[in-house]
Structures are given as C-alpha cells and as structure tokens.
Amino acid sequence: MTASFMDLVDVTIVNIAMPSIRDDIGASFSTLQWITEGYALAFAAGLITGGRLGDIYGRRRIFLLGMSGFTLASMLCGIAGDPQLLVAARVLQGATAALMVPQVLAIVHATFPAHERGKVFGMFGAVVGLGAVSGPILGALLTQWNLFGLEWRPIFLVNLPVGVAGLLLGRKYISESRAPQALKLDLVGMALATGGVLMLLYPLTQGRELGWPLWGHLCMAGSVLVLAAFVAYERHKSRKDGSPLVELSLFKVKSFAAGIGVELAFGIACGIFFLIWTLYMQIGLGWSPLRAGLTGIPFSIAVSVAAGVSVQKLVPRFGRKVLQAGALAMASGVLLYIWESGHYGKDIAPWQMALPLVVMGLGMGLIVAPLTETVIAEVPREHSGSASGLINTTQQLGNAMGLGLVSVVFFDALDEGRMARGHAAEAFGDAFRNGMWWVAGVLGAVLALMFALPRKAKAGAAAAEGADAEAGTARESAAAA
C-alpha cells in the first residue's frame, strides 16, 4: 500500500512544480518535457520485465529492491542542481517504479485467500485514490511554502521518510513468493522496443529547440525499422521458448487490438493536456502553484464520481456506450475550455474554468475505470495476465508520446516574441488552445476506435485471471484524477 501511495503521489505531484523547476535551475521547455516523459518511458519499458523478475527471483526481493531504488532516486531528484541530472534521476525513478509497482498486486494474490482479496482491493483502491488526489495539492503546498528555502525540492524529498517506512514494514511483514512456472525474461525485446520508441521521442522532443535537423527526421524514420525488428524478434521468441515480451497472438482478437489503440490514444491525449494545462495556468496566467492546484479540484471530484458510477451502475447495463459517452463528454469539455480561454483571455478566473473541467472530468471518469476490463473481455483467460500487462505498458507509453508531442502542438505554437514583449498570457493562451484542439482530435480517434470494443464486457471474464488488470484499472483511474 505504501508503494502504491508513493508511486501515485510522484506521478501527480511533479506537473504542478514545473514552472518553479524552470525558474530555479534554468530548465528549458524540452527539459521540462523530459522530467515527466523520462519517468513515463522508463516505467513503461520496465513494467512487464519487472513483473517477471518478481515471478522468477521472488516478489518480496524485487519489491524491496525497487522501493530502495525509488527512494534513492527521489533523493537524487531532490538534490539535483542541474537539469540533466534531474532528468537522469527521474528516469531512474521510473525504472525502479517498474520493479516495485508490479509486485504489489502479485503479493496480495500470494498472501491472501480468494475470499479476503475483495477487502484488500478495496483498501488498495482507497490508498491509490488518496495518493492521486493528494499529489497535486501536496505538490502545490510544498512548492508554495518553499520549506527551508528549498523551492520545489520537497516534492521529491517527501518520498524519503515514506520510502524508509515502507522498506522497514516490507522487510518485517511481507513473505517471499514466486510463480511456479514463471515466463523467461526478454531483455532483447525490451531493448528493441525501448530503443525504437526513444528514436521516435528524442528528436520529437528536442527537434524544435535544435531547428528540426535532418538527423532527427532520419532517426524518427529509423524508429519504424527498429520497431519492425522488435515484432520479428517477438515472433522468433514465441517459437523459441514461449516467453516474448509482447504476446503478438493477442492482436488477432479484434477488440483487444482496437482497445490497445484506445489506450495509446487516450494516454497521448492525457499526456498533452496535463502538461500544457499547468504551463498555461502558472507561466501564462501567472498563477501561484496553490491556485493552479486548487483549480483542478472540480476535475478530480468529477473523475472520481463518474468512475464509481460507471463501473457499478452504467457499464453492466449499457456496455461500451458508456465509454463512448465518456469520450464525447471529454471532447465537449475540451471544446468548451477552448472557447472560454479565448473569450475571457488573460482575465479568466478559476471558477470560470470549473464547468469545462467538470465536463472533462466526468468524461474521463466514464472511460478510465471500466476501460481495462472492456479491452480484455474477449481475450482468452490463459492470456489475461499478458494482456493486462501490455495494457498497463501501453497506457504509460501513450502518456510518454503525448508529452513528446507537446513540442509540436504547444511549443511550436508559442510566440516567444510576444512573451519577450510582455504578452506571456496571450502567447500561452494561443498555444494552449492550439494544443487543446489536438487533444480534441485525439479524443475523436479514441471515439472511433471504441466502436470495435465489445458491446458488453462479460463481467470479470478475463480480468478474473490477472491481478494486473485490477491494478491497472485502479491505478489508471486514480492517476487520471
């Protein structure tokens, strides 16, 4: 529970401190992207491998190793005085989180009998929700208070006492467990997948500041070849020992293939929105971290309410129509936000943002909570663990891609000349609306892909076999909030 809390707080706490980080250590806009993008990419790359390491070498051992690394990386983030060192520490944080997080639900399954797990999952959902909701507010307060003159650094240093407590409790109370028939590691597959994505994201993120050089375009084109080599290797790995990083046969299930597309596109939309939103409020409008953090409360409440209602009441009755309604509502909220931002300009107030944020939050809540189970509803039970692991990875990968696209959809539209002339609010407002049009377009793609999802998911069909599916659903809905 401590690990889940720490992970979610760290995911949600950073965005609110971005402008303070930029002012304090002179981070460029692309560096700000990498602070979140590096974490998401490292986390995505290591999730499946982290789960397998726990199955092979012991979940308690890998869990404690991951928590130790995460705590150490948090300290390195907190003391970093250089933008590049901060990005490196964030990548280390993401990689160690990928060791720690997959063990949580696996340890629950190994520790508790089936009839007791419902209570534990209820506690898990509450703790994860608390971590996600408290992250932005905690980040705003710690940044605003400027404790001991440390500026933004306490948002990372706060993990140290929590991490030490988790390590002590884990060593004392968690018993060791392994999978009786664990899948083998696929380090070559992980290297190819990570390399291919990095070849795409690095020039995409840095290209604007470097003037979009030729090597960047060649690198992005080369990423297609590397990812094609990854697919070929995964087929070879399946024939060789049946332990590929990605079970390609899953994509023969039409609804699952479309669902992966939904997860990826939805992650892209969220990655773009949350970063440009905080930059718009704090740098563009000049709001304090606390004011910006409090502005998001209606959004968080709306997500939480809609997520609960969608799973318990709506999805069992209306199926995928609930998710489609969520995509429409979220896109409507985005369009309303675009209109309000243009209409009120630099004088827009937090209460005027409440309506579009509530509409967006309701839409997101209708999507995130039931999405994982809907996507794997038609996947054979024996592949549900692999499917849910791939879904969680795709969510994080989409987020990283969205953060990379911020260079194109936001910073390319940012008129730095107007900023230099003292019109930052207008310049950031224009760039924010341009980015939001992209978010609306991606949500349109999400809606189109949803037509390939099952009309009604069979309750608990594939998810019953995979703890990761429940972990992904709870974590993703909380992360959205």
Can you characterise this structure?
This protein is mostly helical and 481 residues long. It folds into three domains: 1-183, MFS general substrate transporter like domains (Growth Hormone, Chain: A, Up-down Bundle); 186-242; 248-481, Up-down Bundle (Growth Hormone, Chain: A), CATH 1.20.1250. The chain has helices spanning 2-13, 18-25, 29-57, 59-79, 83-111, 114-145, 154-157, 159-173, 187-210, 214-241, 254-284, 289-295, 297-318, 320-344, 350-375, 384-409, 416-420, 424-450, 467-480. It is globular and about 65 Å long.
Distance between the termini: 18 Å
What would CATH call the class of the largest domain? Mainly Alpha
Total strands: the figure is 0
Strand proportion, as a percent range, falls in under 5%
Q: Give me the Rg, rounded.
A: 21 Å
Taken together, the total number of domains comes to: 3
Q: What is the H/E order?
A: HHHHHHHHHHHHHHHHHHH
Largest sheet: none
Rough outline:
globular
The CATH topology of the largest domain: Growth Hormone, Chain: A
Nearest-integer average pLDDT: 88
> Based on helices, strands and strand pairing, what is the structural class?
mainly alpha
Number of helices: 19
User: Low-confidence runs (pLDDT<50, min 5 residues)?
Assistant: 459-481
CATH fourth-tier homologous superfamily of the largest domain: MFS general substrate transporter like domains
Subcellular location: Cell membrane
Protein name: MFS transporter
Membrane topology: Multi-pass membrane protein
Pfam families: MFS_1
